[in-house]
Design brief:
Shape: globular
Strand content: 15-25%
Mean pLDDT: 93
Low-confidence stretches: none
Order of helices and strands: EEEHEEHEHHHEHEHEE
Radius of gyration: 17 Å
Structural class: alpha/beta
Bound molecules: adenosine-5'-diphosphate
Distance between the termini: 25 Å
Strand order of the largest sheet: 6-7-8-3-9-10
C-alpha cells in the first residue's frame, strides 16, 4: 500500500532529511516509525501525503507512483489518508459531532450521509454518547479519540499518526494503540510515528527506525 524506493529528501537549506530510504508496507499492516527528533519521521509522512515531494527516488501509494499525481490532484490523493496529530487539533468552539463531521462537510456530503458516517466513526472510538459534548469537557484521551474519529470518518485506506499518544499516560496510550490495531484489522494501513519505545516494543508490530535520515535495519534507536 505504501512503498518507498531509495527515497531522498534534501531541503533547500541543504539538509538531507531522508537518505535512500526503501521499505514496503502492505495493506493490512500496522507499522511504527521511530527515531530521535530530527531523524526524518515527519518528512517521510509529508511525502506520503504529498505535502512535499522527494528529491530522488519513488514513493508509491495504493499502486500509484506519486510523481504522476499533479498538484491539482493532491486533494483527491489526501482524501485516501486520515491523519491524527499529537495535539488533535480540534476546534474548541464546536461540539464533538461537528468536529468529526468537518472533513465530510468540506467534501460536500449530504446531511443524512454525514450523520450516518459521523455516528459510525464515533461508535468505533467509543464516543457515541458524547456527540453533543464540547471538546473542553472531554479528557485528553477522549479528545484524542475524537481526533481519530475525524481521521477515519472519510473511510481512508491509510491512517497516519504523528505521536498520537504524546500527551497521554501509559494506560490511555495503550487504549489508543488498540484502536489503531482495530482499524488495521479491518484493512486500513496504519503508520504511527512514536517515541514511546516502551509501548511500541510491547505491541509486536514492525518498527521502522530512522537515524539521521537513514533507515536502520533491525532494531530500535
Ligand atoms: P522528525 O519528524 O523525525 O523530528 P523531520 O522530518 O521533522 O524529523 O526533520 C528532519 C530534518 O529535516 C531535520 O534536520 C529538520 O531540521 C529538517 N527539516 C524539516 N523540515 C524542514 C524544512 N521545511 N526546511 C528545512 N529543513 C527541514
Ligand atoms: P456503516 O455502513 O454502518 O456506516 P461502515 O461503512 O462505517 O459501516 O463500516 C463497515 C465496516 O468496515 C466496519 O466494520 C468498519 O469497521 C470497516 N471499515 C472499513 N473502512 C474503514 C475505515 N477506513 N476505518 C474504519 N473502519 C473501516
Amino acid at each position: 500500500m505504501i512503498s518507498f524506493e531509495r527515497v531522498s529528501k534534501r531541503y533547500p537549506e541543504g539538509h538531507d532529511a531522508l537518505r535512500e530510504v526503501s521499505f514496503d508496507i502492505a495493506r493490512d499492516d500496522l507499522v511504527f516509525l521511530t527515531g530521535h527528533s530530527g531523524a526524518g519521521k515527519s518528512t517521510l509522512m509529508r511525502l506520503i501525503m504529498l505535502m512535499d515531494r522527494p528529491t530522488r527516488g519513488k514513493v508509491v501509494v495504493d499502486g500509484r507512483d506519486l510523481s504522476t499525481v499533479s498538484n491539482r490532484r493532491i486533494p483527491g490523493h489526501r482524501r485516501q489518508i486520515g491523519v491524527v496529530f499529537q495535539n488533535h487539533q480540534l476546534l474548541f468552539d464546536r461540539n464533538v459531532f461537528d468536529n468529526v463531521a468537518l472533513p465530510l462537510v468540506i467534501s460536500g456530503y449530504d446531511h443524512r450521509e454525514v450523520g450516518r458516517r459521523v455516528r459510525a466513526a464515533l461508535d468505533k472510538v467509543g464516543l457515541l454518547k458524547r456527540e453533543r459534548a464540547m471538546p473542553v469537557t472531554l479528557s485528553g484521551g477522549e479528545q484524542q479519540r475524537v481526533g481519530i474519529a475525524r481521521a477515519v470518518v472519510g473511510r481512508p485506506k491509510i491512517l497516519l499518526a504523528d505521536e498520537p499518544t504524546g500527551n497521554l499516560d501509559p494506560e490511555l496510550s495503550a487504549e489508543i494503540m488498540q484502536l489503531f490495531e482495530s482499524f488495521s484489522q479491518v484493512g486500513v494501513t496504519v503508520l504511527i510515528a512514536s517515541h514511546d519505545l516502551a509501548l511500541i516494543s510491547r505491541l509486536r508490530h514492525r518498527i521502522l527506525t530512522l537515524r539521521e535520515g537513514r533507515l536502520v535495519t533491525g532494531g530500535l534507536l
